[in-house]
Amino acid sequence: MSDVLHIQTRAYPLHYTSIDRTVERVVLPGRGQLRPVPGVLGSVAYNAEETLDFDLTEIVQAAVSLPDITIVSCRSRILAAGGVLVSYALRHTTDLRTLDAHDLAALDATINRELREADRALLGEVLAAAKQSGVFAQVVVPPGGAEAADWTEVDPRAVRYNCHFITRDPAWEPDGRVPNLVLGRRCRILLPYTYAWDDDPSPDRIDDILTMLEPADIAVAQQSVLVGASVGGLRILTELAQATAGRLEGPEFRRFLDGVWADYHRLDAYRVESGQDHRATYIAARETIGLDGTHERAEKLLNHVNASLLAESSRRSEQLDGRLNRVAAALTVVASAAFLLDIAAFLWPDVSGLTKAVTVTGVTLLAAGMLGATIFWSRRASDEGPGDRSDGRVADGIRQRAGGARQDRGRVPAARPPGPLEIDR
């Protein structure tokens, strides 16, 4: 068995208002029960950041197996905000020290795909059971998918993860493209999301090891929050681009964005709450995985989604106003026809039946014509919209400017001899 402890930590973005640390057990139908244990982020030095921890080792070992790999531990930590961390501790029969950084990353990626396929249903059951037991308060899910009451799992595309290799005196060299950054004493960044740690790899120290890994794992948790928000925003943009009929989700999207940014910035407080050694590793991990760039791109995308929702809401409001105006116009025409019939009956009370029939028919035809004309013109105005009605004025302005430009061509001064190159600073 290799003397390297391989740990994968996944970050599942999940937005909730709080967690109930008084829940004593979580029942998994057909799998037994879990006992949550209140905990804290051990690397936070100033204000304690509470967590709720689950030991999933037994149920994972019973449900998941990989060739040449031993699952020695599986822990889940529900953060106070932003999501859930799931950490696998693995032992390999092969000697990982003989691999370089790229081979390690490729091996880790393969294992991660196999693990995620094998435990997807299990972890979904764990999260759903935790929600059913009252661990999460007021879960907020991205719009466009399942309702919060029907929520069962986190979108797999939003899940990000780190891989860590813990051993004494790690010999792996970082990739040449990794920037030279200030790190904590025991950390070495081999590739983005790939870390080597100089420490005792004994699984009996799993609690201390997970505390050591927290700076990098908090950074990847922030990344997952942004990616999850972007996935939800893209789903809405796709629906708007396809003109999918259905209710608008503007208020739900605003609440979702509020939860996203609140959780992201609460996780970001780690940079000021953590100790000096952990803080250096956290800041370096942020820069290596490009967290600030992800933040900028996600913010642009979500602002665009918000603007598109507002535009679609305005368009649907205009359509509704047009329908209401047509209904009001139709009611006005009908009321006018009824008023005309009342006047006719008052002025000619003793006319023959033929005269009454002719009068009623004439008023009815007049009302029908007025009603058709009203509906036709209101629909035409609604379909054209304000932009269409201004097209003529815009075209006239373009033609006027073009004519003026043709008149000015005769007044262009003669070209002067070329001088030195001028650069606009």
From TrEMBL:
The superkingdom listed in its UniProt entry is: Bacteria
Return the Pro residues bias intervals.
Answer: 415-425
> What are the protein's UniProt keywords?
Membrane, Transmembrane, Transmembrane helix
Region named Disordered: 381-425
Q: For this UniProt entry, which segments traverse the membrane? A: 324-348, 354-377
The residue ranges flagged as biased composition, category Basic and acidic residues, are 381-399
Q: What is this protein called?
A: Uncharacterized protein
What is the protein's species of origin? Micromonospora echinaurantiaca
